[in-house]
Amino acid sequence: MSGAQDTAATATDDSALRAAGSMQAPPDADGRDGERGEGSAPAVLFVGTSLTAGYGLQHEEAYPALIQRRIDSLGLNYHVVNAGVSGETSADARRRIGWLLRGQRADIVVIETGANDGLRGLSVDTLRANVGAIIDSVRAVRPQAEILLVAMEAPPNLGSRYTAEFREVYPEVASEKGVVLVPFLLAGVAGIPSLNQQDGIHPNARGERIVAENVWRTLRDALVPVRPEG
What we know:
It is a single chain. By secondary structure, this protein is α/β, with parallel strands linked by helices. 45% of the residues lie in helices and 10% in strands. It has a 5-stranded parallel beta sheet, sandwiched between helices. The chain is globular, with a radius of gyration of 17 Å. The protein starts with a helix and ends in an 11-residue tail after the last helix.
């Protein structure tokens, strides 16, 4: 699909979402993620690493906040919660996911994990087990939640075999567990100096806008009118 076609498709889908959202109560005026009480509106919970937390950026520049603004612009009654933690491995995410969900409404859960596993060259088999267990935990605590798994890739310096096996984890687990796969988070950003901070790993504000669009192309299909709890 060409860039023009993709933009047109996005505009068409966004118009449909806006029409659906017009039937709901308007979102909170401030549009900031993670600051609205549980039960006030359906929640999109982002569980992730520093790539989700927005390392090195202002709060409003991180891609979950950019997605919140897109949601608000469409008049949809969702709020975004950014639960990204810098330095977190898939094992760390596995340990905290149950606790996190018990204290937080989550109608849609977006799981971004594994980036730090790849940076450290950790076991691919362990990554696969952890990602599957995270999904199982979400279903145990929030059985009605829509789950999106964000694909990640390992740095090329770890060798072609490792990077290939690492890449395969995400579509394989998504298929096995029946969840929606979001294509590679950093597509169009990774390896491009002008779109990354000085560390060459974390997107800058320009890169973050591309990351937000990468996620939005899949997430928008999960945004349907949902009645608030309570």
